[in-house]
TrEMBL record:
It comes from the Bacteria. This is MerR family transcriptional regulator. The keyword DNA-binding applies. Residues 305-329 are annotated as: Disordered. It comes from Streptomyces aureoversilis. Keywords: DNA-binding. CDD domains: beta_clamp.
Length: 394
């Protein structure tokens, strides 16, 4: 960026500008990376970003669009496209939002009508918990339920769980003011971080069977806040007069994988793809690709999805016939053109577990784990392993 004509005396630091426009510095750095909101000046020596007063209107519009759930690819049209294009994009978004809200209302009403009376939880007087908790952390009930929902798809199932029982558990880790939920099946790794309302005692961690955590999360969803407590006998959840013991596993017998080592040694991303999360989810779920690997390709700010060509059967010259057509989605892509393959159901589970209108894929190479997370909400991260792309070897 050419900053030679910039009056630096009028510029604001990223922190001051963030407070003025209501955006987090992390979000401003992200919007710079994807060229939605570039700083007016970047210091060559320090790399610090500075913003001009006249950029406030654009920043506030970005914030309002994101608050309305507008995907970043559509927001770019509103920000820089023609007025009629912007109007059409926003009208389409309103129509989709109404449709989604109506569908959600129907589903929720059906669920409410089938909820059983009573609760499986015990009252504090009935709970056989006689020792003082050595540690306690309080989080929002809905936030805890959301965290369980997001990491649960990465829990191992079937033969993998039978061979490695620890992978059928969710790790709950308390570290200062942060609560982390972690799950992995060896091919996926999901980490969700919550900010605690309050904490007491030392840092600690427990392993809880995924089925138990899912059951507890369904109850926690209805509570304004939930305490996670631990002592030498185990762990429990409590809200008001109700509590429930969480069966925990012994990590001396079942060591959980060192997820921190995986994240700390992750290679630098060479490619970044940002696209509409709902559109990508629909493409993966409804495109009719079957069990064949799905090929993702980037070029000219587009993300193209095609099924991998099936391997011909030995000795067969039969034409398999036309397969599903390729699908193309608008995307913000950085880095050189990319081709990478995934198992559709594995990538779909990671996309469905995300939050926000967009998904961000950070890719170092086609044979290394891919980071999938919300574009500008960094509290949930999942790693997905790509699969071998035989056609790329030809």
């Amino acid at each position: 960026m050419d900053d030679t004509d910039t009056d630096t005396d009028m510029l604001m630091s990223i922190g001051a500008f963030a407070r003025r426009v209501g955006l987090a510095p992390r979000a401003l750095r992200f919007y710079d990376d994807c060229e939605v909101l570039r700083p007016a000046h970047v210091d060559d020596a320090t790399g610090y970003r500075y913003y001009a007063p006249e950029q406030q209107a654009r920043a506030v519009l970005v914030r309002r669009l994101r608050e309305a759930g507008v995907p970043l690819t559509d927001a770019a049209v509103v920000l820089d496209g023609a007025r009629e294009e912007a109007r059409a994009v926003l009208q389409e978004h309103v129509a989709r939002a109404r449709e989604t809200a109506a569908s959600a209302q129907v589903v929720i009403q059906e669920i409410l009508s089938t909820l059983p009376d009573g609760t499986p939880w015990t009252t504090e007087a009935e709970a056989n918990w006689t020792t003082e908790a050595k540690a306690k952390v309080c989080v929002g009930g809905a936030e805890l339920a959301s965290a369980v929902r997001q990491v649960a798809p990465a829990v191992a199932a079937g033969p993998v769980r039978e061979e490695f029982p620890v992978l059928g558990h969710i790790l709950i880790e308390i570290d200062g003011q942060e609560v982390r939920l972690v799950a992995t099946d060896g091919y996926r790794l999901a980490v969700r971080t919550l900010r605690a309302m309050s904490t007491e005692g030392d840092s600690w961690r427990v392993l809880v069977a995924a089925a138990e955590m899912k059951d507890a999360a369904a109850w926690a969803m209805r509570m304004p806040d939930v305490s996670i407590e631990a002592d030498r006998e185990g762990a429990r959840l409590r809200s008001g007069a109700y509590s429930r013991t969480l069966p925990t596993a012994d990590e001396t017998a079942l060591p959980f994988p060192d997820y921190r080592m995986v994240l700390d040694n992750f290679p630098m991303a060479r490619h970044r793809i940002i696209t509409d999360r709902a559109a990508l989810r629909t493409a993966l779920a409804e495109a009719g690709f079957g069990d064949a690997p799905i090929i993702l390709r980037t070029a000219e700010q587009r993300l193209t999805l095609t099924p991998a060509e099936p391997e011909p059967e030995p000795g067969s010259d039969r034409d398999p016939g036309p397969g599903p057509e390729e699908l193309t989605l608008p995307a913000i892509c950085t880095g050189p053109p990319l081709r990478i393959a995934f198992a559709p159901e594995v990538l779909l589970a990671a996309i469905e577990a995300g939050v926000g209108p967009d998904v961000l894929l950070e890719i170092s190479s086609p044979d290394q784990p891919v980071v999938a997370r919300s574009a500008d909400q960094g509290s949930f991260t999942t790693l997905v392993m790509p699969v071998h792309d035989a056609a790329a070897d030809k």
